[in-house]
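Hello, quick one for you while I still have it in my head. Could you read through the record and tell me how the tokens relate to the sequence? No rush at all, and the record is pasted right below.
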Amino acid sequence: MIPELMTQRIETAFGDVRRGSGITLHEADVLDACGSEKERVKARKLDTDEKWQDVPEREIEDHASALCFLDPEGFRYYLPAYMRWSVRNYRTSNSLSSDMTIYALAPSGNKGVTDWNRARWEVFTRQQSEVILDYLRFMLETGKDHADSFMAELAINAYWRQFS
């Protein structure tokens, strides 16, 4: 699949997703740093976007690990932005955001697919889950030298294959 088509599929499947009250990108940074509730409130104010399409690409590049700290609602909101960014930048960026996007869709270590994974993955519609599968296949097929294709394949086999 060509990058432009993959990007278009992401935008179509997730087009109506809005931010809501889930954990935001900058809040995730505070959680990662074990920050206080006061710091979380302050960090949340830095995220002014209401549509995932408006999340600045620089923020995605700079917050590679954010997906690990999002609740299901925040994960549903930010994942399409990260997938789109990855499709556009996986060959040219030194950021770990592409790999971290794949890891967020893969089982948790040797535990397999956990309840925590399911809680975050089951928020997606059938169409969105199909696009996530296509994204993982895209990264497996085209990202071999630029992204963690091993983990993309693991994610497909562990959970996402059911959406083919």
In short: Residues 72-89 form the longest helix (18 residues). The chain is about 55% helix and 0% strand. The two ends are 15 Å apart (CA to CA). The mean pLDDT is 93.
